[in-house]
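Consider this pair:
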Amino acid sequence: MTSITGDLATSPTTTRQVLIRGLAIISLVAAVIHFAVAGEHFEEYWAFGVFMLGAAWFQLGWAVAVTLRPTRLVLALGAAVNAGIVAVYLVTRTVGDVVGPTPHEVEPVGFGDLFCTVCEAAIVAGAVVLLLTGLQRAVSRGRFTLVSVAAGVAAAGLLSVVLVDGGSEMVMGADDAPATSPTSTGMTGMHMSATSSISLPTTSPAGAVVPPDPNMQMEPGMKMAQASCTSAPTAAQESAAVSLVDTTWNADQKYQSLAAAKAAGFVPITPTGLPVVHYINLANYRAAARGGTVLNPTAPQSLVYANTPNGAVLAAVMYMSTRRDGTPPSPGGCLTQWHVHTNLCTTLQRGVVALADPTCPAGSVNRVTGPMLHVWFVPIPGGPTAVDAPDAQVVQAAGKVRHPANAKA
């Protein structure tokens, strides 16, 4: 007489149940990825965050529903909603965003988001198969358990790779430690104590000079050019920071006209048409490289334009130093800090052509840039001497200032 345990171990199930179990696991994986990136997307634009949370909760709920009651309605909903999510992904990676602060910006393709989309496409395909076919071939209970465990282990392993490889959008990196640590902040080297009350009025539309925000995160591929800056600015440094902002604004507000900037010799050094485009004046850059004044408001090396729905807006002057020793002039102390880029792919003919992801396209090279310092003309968080801001914030801030009519940069 066969034991009850033996009967359970060998009693048959079906290929349909195997596929349902696999789709539930895949849906859980996609839900975890969407939960992981929801916060980052809320910071970029509220609707993006809502979409990510909605997708995550649906995929989590669907995994439970399809396991407990795999009805035709549940399968059809899974196929339809995930097909919609895949369609949104394809649009944002080809046509660009259709809503938000940076419309028509084409989102980059990363390993994590691509893997999540593959999972969603697999859910669509599997649900359609279940709707159209019976899949009643018998499978032993032992094999069913083995397949379920193997699928779960594989999913967990791939999910771990996604969360680690996905970078700052997926997990907190070493530079994102809590701001309570005096030497490890969201922007390494930017912690200053007892300066939160500093607010120094300027004539720039960017507003008052304030201390750098220790919780602000730099874009991937950026780091501070200097060692940790912990000193409160002196009265002379405060005055120098305001003077730098005011003289830069007074000298360079004429470049609010993109035509005027081009006539003065500024040419794009990053691809045009992006949400934020950098222009360079090679004559000014070379003059500074030959020993001239780097912080020269009458001859800035670079201009930063934000492409808004109403045309290009001058967002900042960017001073560029060719000195690689990490000690460019910083008249405002911790209020005027420099950064470098570590992930730009450049060519002599075209300037910046791509981001190293992780390597550069053929014909371009990745070199650490010289130090750079922004003086902002639009009200981004952190004020006119903020080290950096995400493109979405720059474009949003640019839409708040008056500017002459421009075409896109």
Notes: Confidence is low (pLDDT under 50) at residues 1-11, 165-195.
